[in-house]
Amino acid sequence: MASVTDADLKTMTQEERVTALGMRTDQLTGRAMRIEFNPDEEERFEYPWAPDVDFNKRTELDVDEMTSTEANRQIRALMEDGYGTIVIKNPRGKHSLGVGILTRLRLIFEGSLGYFGVGLIDGPNVTINGRVGWSCAENMMAGSVVVEKNAGSTFGAAIRGGDLVSKGSVGSRTGIDQKGGTIIVGGDTGALTGFMMQRGRMVICGNAGKNLGDSMYDGTIYIGGEIKSLGVDAVPSELTDLDKDWLTRKLTLYGLLPERGVDHFQKIVAGRQLWNYDNLEPSEKKIIL
Amino acid sequence: MCGIAGLIHKGNRANVGGEMTAMLQALKHRGPDSTGYAVYGEGTPGDYVMRFVLAEQEDMSKGFDMHQVVAERLIEVENRLKLHEANVKSREAVTDYAHRFVISHEGDTEQMIRHIEDIKGVEIMSIGNGLELIKDLGDAGVVSQQYGLLEFQGSHGIGHTRMATESDVDIRSAHPYWAFPYNDVAVVHNGQITNYWLMRRDMERKGHRFMSSCDSELLAVYTADNLANGVTLQDSLRRSIDEIDGVFTYLVATKDQLGMAKDTMAAKPLVLYESDDLIAMASEEVAIRAILPHEIDTTDPYDEEVRVWQA
Questions:
Q1: How many domains in chain A?
Q2: Which among A63, A134, A173, B223 could disulfide-bond with A152, CB atoms 3.0 to 4.6 Å apart, if both were Cys?
Q3: Which pLDDT does position A286 carry in this prediction?
Q4: Which of B272, B296, B299 would best serve as a mutation to test chain A binding (most A beta carbons within 10 A)?
């Protein structure tokens, strides 16, 4: 199937876009939320209270002697002053750094983060030149987080949007309860990856531990390496040309495209035998974004 | 929650006491109730370090004659050591209730220990050639200062900061646990063991003693039982993943080894740093950063992972 260009997408209706992008529009048997998504509006979306930052205004913040709370307050103060590019020096594994940022910001960590780093964010582009501990980017709504090294367990737990990337290997329960967005892992991932996944996409370039995709409701997992075992109700599916196009584009974007391409990737989806929605709104459709 | 940490210097010695103190102090938020260390120095061949307590810390403020009581208990410990023909080479009263003896003994050590622990309120923390097992109420800095650990030179160690959940805040429920009666073997654990009572009854039927009602003690007894039956540390750790139910990450140290095991769910954290001369691990990376200021690469061991390192 031929690639779809951005110009093509703009001329299509929402239903046509969904079909062209290979997203599913399956009938649900019960309650679901219908999400109307306009890419143009999404691009313009900002919280009304968000500070007006300038990406060209850059500063550095050494957090070596600060607590996590102090560091996060300093980041906010710099954003209020209009700084759009903030480089954090000496994070040294501190927990909960860069959390709750709800606007555009270029945030660069020169070092590693502890637990719950950059959680609850909605919009910033984050680069972490180090590793992250458990629960990085938990509940992320939008933006991007690129981790140059390894990540701990529950990487991207319950994320709803944006791109979350670890160029190394990650721990167990990656993307647990994922509700949207994209999680990309350059290396291996541990057990119960994609556990109770509901929407979104996950790309694992290396191997996965046992019970991959266990109890997933929906969403798609692409994996380039070996799977120790599939979880309950996770089943293989056909890798289409659209899947390959999307994988190639995403992995190229983050410098993770394997030399041999993406033809060897497997696609895992929900078998849909465990769904337990009620039947109040049987005609609604779910659109994966 | 609890925090665990361990490190091992490969082929050399360092200020393990200071390093472990820094790591455990960084994990204070995971467990403020008590802190414990099992550090390994260079013992004198034939000599054993015996660390024991005569009472719980809180007991010292109870009753007008408590100091007299512990003095009498100490005399009784001396009497029983003499009865078992143990030669006490040095004595150190670290606190009012905690003592460190260096002894030589060629008889049945287990029988001697059981006889001593039959004295009311007395518990032997550890006996080992290189092992120094220290645990008390308070954070890492307080305990380390109290027991003079900051300058301790050795090859490796493990430690624990405890948030008491299922048992009391006291010394006997604090970690590490000595793998009685195995010299130089100690265990720290983060997690919950759900087949504790079943396994404990099994171990008690085999004649093993339990000093607390803390589920983590089971891992020490279980390890001791395996080692006594000729099982290697690696195999004991591997076997535990199938035989112990619950969520756990635990570390075991012997005279010259450090091992780790993670349960089948990988539900309890451990961050691992490995270089040519140092292995360090902890519940959180911030503890490793406390001794390694430069940028490092770390990994999370996976589910059912077992590793053993040699000093």
A1: 1
A2: A134
A3: 46
A4: B299
pTM of the entire predicted model? 0.85
Check if B214 is active-site.
Answer: no
In sequence order, the 6+-apart residues with CB closer than 8 A to the CB of B197 are none
- Rounded to two decimals, the ipTM of the complex is 0.82
**Full DSSP string of A127-158:** EESS-B-TTTTTT--EEEEEESS-B-SSTTTT
Spell out the domain ranges in chain B.
3-40+137-310, 43-129
Could you say which of 3.40.50.460, 3.30.40.10, 3.30.70.1110, 3.30.70.20 is the CATH number of the domain covering B43-129?
Answer: 3.30.70.1110
Which CATH entry fits the domain spanning B3-40+137-310: 3.40.50.2300, 3.30.428.10, 3.40.50.720, 3.60.20.10? 3.60.20.10
* 3-state SS track over chain B: CCEEEEEEECCCCECHHHHHHHHHHHCHHHCCCEEEEEEECCCCCCEEEEEEECCCHHHHHCCCCHHHHHHHHHHHHHHHHHHCCCEEEEEEECCCCEEEEEEECCCCHHHHHHHHHCCCCCEEEEEECCEEEEEEECCHHHHHHHCCCCCCCECEEEEEEECCCCCCCCHHHCCCEECCCCCCCEEEEEEEECCHHHHHHHHHHCCCCCCCCCCCHHHHHHHHHHHHCCCCHHHHHHHHHHHCCEEEEEEEECCCEEEEEECCCCCCCCEEEECCCEEEEECCHHHHHCCCCCCCCCECCCCCCEEEEEC
Chain B residue numbers with beta carbons less than 8 Å from the beta carbon of A67 are none
At A243 the pLDDT is: 95
User: Closest by alpha carbon to B214, among B171, B251, B245, B259?
Assistant: B171
Q: Checking DSSP bridges between strand A163-166 and strand A142-147, what pairing results, if any?
A: parallel
Task: Determine, yes or no, domain membership for A174.
Answer: yes
pLDDT, tens digit, 9 for 90 and up, residues B102-146:
999 988 888 999 999 999 999 999 999 999 999 999 999 999 999
| Fold matches, B3-40+137-310 and B43-129 | no
- Given pLDDT bands bounded at 50, 70 and 90, which one contains residue A35? very low
Q: How far apart are CA A140 and CA A134, in angstroms?
A: 14
Closest by Cβ to A130, choosing from B295, B300, B303: B295
- Test B289 with A93 for CB contact under 8 angstroms: yes
**If interface means Cβ-Cβ distance under 8 Å, which residues of chain A face chain B?**
92-95, 111-112, 114-115, 130-131, 133-134, 149-153, 169-173, 190-192, 209-210
Which runs of consecutive H residues, i.e. helices, occur in A22-152?
39-44, 68-80
C-beta atoms of B303 and A172 within 8 A: yes
